Amino acid sequence: METLVVIRVLRAELNRSFDSYGKMDPFAVVKWLASGLSGASREISRTRTDWNAHMNPQWDHTCRAQPYTYDMMLSGSDFLEFEVMEGNVIGRPTFCGSSTIEISKLLGEATPSACSGQASSPEAVAGPVVELVLRNRSEVTGTITVQAVLVQRPPGSIPGSSTALTRVDPGLFEEPVERMGVSGGSAPFFKLCLRQPSSLGEASSDYFIGKDLSHAEDEVTFYEEVLALKSLPGAGGLAPLLEFTFEYAGVLSTFEAGLRANAKRQSLELLVMRNLRAGSKHLRMLDIKIGQKTAQAGWQGKSRTAALRQSVIDGITNSSCEGFRLEGFDGQPPALRSMDPLLDLGVTGNQKMAKKALRVMLQRMTGSEMLLHFLDVHQEPLVSDQELQEKMTPMEVSEVVLHEVVCKMAQLAIACRRCPVPQKWIGSSVGLAFDAGRLPSRLEGESEVRKFTQVNIFDWGRSELNTFDKHMMLSDKEQHDRAEFWGYYVGGIDRLSWEAARTYRHRFGCTGSWSHLNFKICDFDSMTDNDFMGRLTVPIEETTETCADIMTQSGRLVGENAARGRATLTYSIRWRSYPQGSRFKGAWLIKVVSAQNLPRQDKMQFRTTSDPIIEIIAVSEDAAGLLCHRQLSSVKVKCLDPDWEETFELPVLAEPGALEAALESAAVDLGARCAGSIFPPEKMPDWQKEGLFPELSSTKAASKWSWSSAEASDVEKAFKTWESCLDAISASPSTARPQRVDAHQPLGKSFTKPEAHIRPGAREQQTGLHPKHEKPDSPEANAYTTWALFEGQAAKPAVQMSTLSPDGIFIFEEQEGEQNLCGCLQFPCMS
């Protein structure tokens, strides 16, 4: 048996306010001081922030258990430090006071020997509730009430959980570890370097990465449960879904590098996970938070005030529109980096404010905009015509990346539908990543690109891993709650997978020829919509460097009567063929050289300049409908005569059916079901529709020259069709065969199996009923629902009858007048 100490932080009482105005929002930090007060310290936990609690916060927080032996008690060299902080919306927390106490004194008479000697309660012995004095230097600022509990569990276990805590041998990694910078989230990450990667079968020394456990206490149980579940055959029906989680190795105890000479040596505990950057030259990654609702009051310590604030963020970001939002973007392309979110405010040099403004800008991006920047490689070094025979171009890499993302996102959407029970994954994320700095040789081919293309699900701080056994123990209200939030999650995954497929169709779906190209020049505005400056429409054909006049929305020349002269755009177009074996037949290279005499648009900011950006849209038409490929240039700040010198590619695929092949590799028959018509263009100028494709013109346009997104009703209809395709594929016997188990002699009454598939999260499953049953409350209805919930998929069409008995549900198939038992689901009891 292993002895652990669990620290409880109950409450605090402060003597004065540490906030400049309003009520305080206190939280507490607990640190373990090993080998005396001057030894190494490590943060073991922090409480939630008690919003508006002011000077009387109530936490009732239980810290993560720590090993505690009899020898440690005798030495008396380990201490606990409790710090009370005041949380600030802007800026660092304010220190209110701290208190330090020896652990053995906090335990009182609760000792390891006492814990093991109590026959009536061998698992836990609670120490006294202790009130400690808080001090800020010489000032007494209040008190904090804490308690210590000794717990005995099997070695490595976590109190309150049956899951073992996996420990990683510190000798496997070099010490100390270095802190890393990331774009999303608040938990620090650390570089881990394997001493002998070849001995573990890993290709690189940076295969793993460490996440600070003090900021991820809620995640460790989730990862340990995933690790335990993966060791079971079929992982309890969750195997297809858990394949998308990060590889997890366990918890590592180490210390951080880069501290001052007189600073305490900080001991760290890190979650050891797969490092997506391993082997990558320049990783580009999207951190996409999934779900229309990303917080719930009272769920895993989330306060009502914090949940309300989060719901406001959900409402003003893309979460409320498409069911997901962009939280972080590593490896941003130069064009996106040029879009300063504080440009309109004229604020420069404030890195903290710029970071927050950038996060808001990312959170408000639509799915199509996220993927546009994710796949933007037009400013990567251009592969010369001589090098083209030897290595792939950045555009070829982005095509293979998106092809792989479409396949994996479709697999993830189907895996969610086949999950046997609804999950409550609040605030979890999907990560899309690839190596933007790698141009493999044509001998390595696309397999090398696919190897470094990642689609993963992560961030489990507010999530619960639900299993069939757990779900059966929940009340009806709790089951409905899981189904509601699982519906939010699955809806976000569906929309993201649809956006990926739609982006692929319009960027890489052309196998014939692109017809026309539209240059739309705007003044970039960080706070409002971009201001239109002018446009130019040209046919896509071989064109030497040309200087052309820019037109207004009404068809007049921009700057026709201006003193500086007419506004012009200089560009060129040429065709480049790709070598045999490439997925591309070739590509049109559109070079935007410069613009001259652009109008002044920033008069409202009391400036006589503009911040021009060019939106390039190429159009084509195939048998399935219209193709619309959109790209963006970088922003040229405060410039009326910008020089871009940027080259864009319009690829033409060598063979048709690439999108269908990606969907077909995700699931049988998915590609055949999804026609191009369910992926309408993201954005198309109405004047271009009328001029080039009159049959596609919208009669609802307010103006001949107005720009509009695809009709909302058409988009929603197309998306619903996509969801229907996923539903049908998930229930298809050819792609989801029911498991067969050992049969038992059937007892009881037979009933006809419903034809419709019961999908996790659907209304039928929430109520435990099925509309085809004449008696909804009959045990047969509930029995079949339980079976469908367990399997997460439909039975074979040949299966005609099911029989309910006290021992389980028995499945038969009828062939030539005979009923053959093909499987059963056993359960302990049914009332």
TrEMBL record:
A Pfam family that the UniProt record links to this protein: C2
Organism for this UniProt entry: Polarella glacialis (Dinoflagellate)
Region (Disordered): 733-780
Transmembrane segments: none
Biased composition (Basic and acidic residues): 752-762
Domain of life: Eukaryota
Domain C2 intervals: 1-116, 569-706
The protein's name in its UniProt record: C2 domain-containing protein
Matches recorded under Gene3D superfamilies: C2 domain, Inositol polyphosphate kinase
